[in-house]
Design a protein that fits this description.
about 350 residues, about 5% strand, two-stranded antiparallel ribbon
Length: about 350
C-alpha cells in the first residue's frame, strides 16, 4: 500500500499490482507444486512390482525397434476377424501391466487427462527422462486410459465386422435370390392354374380336386409347392444373411468371449445369460453346460425355427449366431455395455441416484 500525491495538497492511498512476469512466475510455482503433489499421490498408490512393470514399457526388447509402449499405442486399422483377435490380444497385454484396479477416481479428471494425452503423444525416450514420480504417474494414468480406448477399439471392430458379415450375407442372399427367381416364377405359374380352378364358380365343388389334378398334374403341383416352400421364406433377414457366417465368427469368438466382460440394463438380462452360457461353453472342462440348458428367452420367434429342432434340441451354430446378432443390436442401443470402456460404458453412470 502506497500513499500517492495526485495533486498539490491531495494525497490518496493506492495498491501497486505486481508485474506480468512476477505473476507468471508465481502461477508457475503454484502449478508445479500442485503437479508434484499429484505425481506423489499417484506413485504412492503403486506397488514396487507395478512400478517395474510401468518402467518396462519404456524399454525395447533386444532386436526390437519399438518399445512396448509404442506397440500398445497402435490401434487396429483393418476390419477382419484376425484384426479383432489382434485387438483382443492387445487388450490382454494392456491388462497384464497390472494397474487397472489402482484407484484414481478421486483425483482431478482434467489433470489426469493431460497426463494421458502427454504419454500418448510423447516418445518413449523423453518419458524415460522424466522424474521418477512424474514418470510413474504419467504411465499409470495412460495405461488406464489406454485400456478403456482399447476396449472401445475391440467393440468398434466387433460392430464393424458384424455389419460387414451382414452386408456380405445380404449380397449373397440377393445373388441366390436372383439365380432362383426363374424357378420361383415357374412354380408360381403352376400354382396359379390350380388357384384359378379353385376360384372358378363353374367348377363343381365335388369334382374340384380331381379337376385340378387332371389339369395341372399331381406331380407337377407337388413339385411347384416344394419349390415355393424352399425359395419363399418368412425368416428374419438377419438370420438369412448370417446363416453362412459361422466359420468367420469362430475365428474371433473364443477370444471375444474370454476378453470382454459385459453388463447390461434389466431388459438385457436374458442376453447376458446367453452370453455367460457361451463363455462357459468355450471355457470347457468338467463344468461345461449342456446345450439343452442354453437360455432360450434370448431367441426371438423369427430365429426359433432355425435354432430349435422339432424335438426342441438346440442347434449350436444357429444359437451362437443368434446371440451375436442380438448382442450387436444391444450394443448399439446401449442396453449392453462394457464397464472398462469410454464410448460403450454404462450410459447411466453419470445419472444421480438415491437421495441425490
Amino acid at each position: 500500500m502506497l500513499t500517492v500525491n495526485l495533486s498539490p495538497g491531495c494525497y490518496k492511498k493506492a495498491v501497486v499490482l505486481p508485474g506480468v512476469s512476477l505473476l507468471a512466475r508465481l502461477i508457475a510455482r503454484v502449478r508445479e507444486s500442485t503437479g508434484r503433489s499429484l505425481y506423489r499421490q499417484l506413485q504412492a498408490r503403486l506397488s514396487g512390482a507395478q512400478r517395474d512393470q510401468l518402467d518396462a514399457l519404456l524399454v525395447a526388447s533386444p532386436g526390437e525397434r519399438l518399445t512396448p509402449l509404442e506397440v500398445l499405442r497402435t490401434s487396429p486399422t483393418r476390419v477382419s476377424a484376425p484384426a479383432l483377435v489382434a485387438a483382443l490380444r492387445r487388450l490382454d497385454q494392456i491388462r497384464a501391466v497390472g494397474v487397472s484396479t489402482v484407484p484414481v477416481q478421486d483425483l482431478p479428471e482434467a489433470r489426469l487427462a493431460r497426463l494421458a494425452r502427454h504419454a500418448q503423444l510423447a516418445w518413449a525416450q523423453p518419458l524415460g527422462r522424466l522424474g521418477e514420480e512424474r514418470r510413474h504417474a504419467t504411465l499409470l494414468v495412460f495405461v488406464q486410459t489406454l485400456e478403456r480406448t482399447a476396449t472401445d477399439d475391440v467393440l468398434d471392430l466387433f460392430d464393424n465386422l458384424m455389419t460387414t458379415l451382414a452386408l456380405r450375407g445380404e449380397t449373397r442372399r440377393r445373388r441366390e435370390r436372383l439365380r432362383t427367381l426363374k424357378d420361383l416364377d415357374a412354380a408360381a405359374l403352376v400354382l396359379q392354374q390350380a388357384v384359378q380352378l379353385l376360384l372358378d364358380d363353374g367348377v363343381p365343388a365335388a369334382s374340384l380336386r380331381q379337376q385340378v389334378l387332371d389339369t395341372v398334374g399331381e406331380a407337377q403341383l407337388r413339385a411347384a409347392a416344394e419349390v415355393v416352400q424352399h425359395l419363399a421364406s418368412d425368416e428374419d433377414p438377419a438370420l438369412q444373411v448370417l446363416s453362412g457366417s459361422y466359420a468367420s465368427v469362430r475365428r474371433f469368438l473364443p477370444a471375444l468371449l474370454a476378453g470382454i466382460s459385459l453388463q447390461g440394463t434389466p431388459s438385457a438380462q436374458s442376453l447376458l445369460a446367453a452370453w455367460h452360457f457361451l463363455q462357459a461353453q468355450e471355457a470347457g472342462g468338467r463344468c461345461r453346460p449342456k446345450w439343452a440348458a442354453a437360455p432360450r428367452a434370448v431367441v426371438p420367434k423369427s430365429w426359433a425355427r432355425r435354432v430349435f429342432s422339432a424335438k426342441g434340441e438346440v442347434n449350436p451354430q444357429a444359437y451362437t449366431l443368434c446371440v451375436l446378432d442380438r448382442l450387436h443390436q444391444a450394443l448399439r442401443r446401449r442396453e449392453v455395455f462394457a464397464p472398462a470402456s469410454e464410448r460403450y460404458g454404462d450410459p447411466r453412470a453419470e445419472l444421480l441416484r438415491g437421495e441425490a
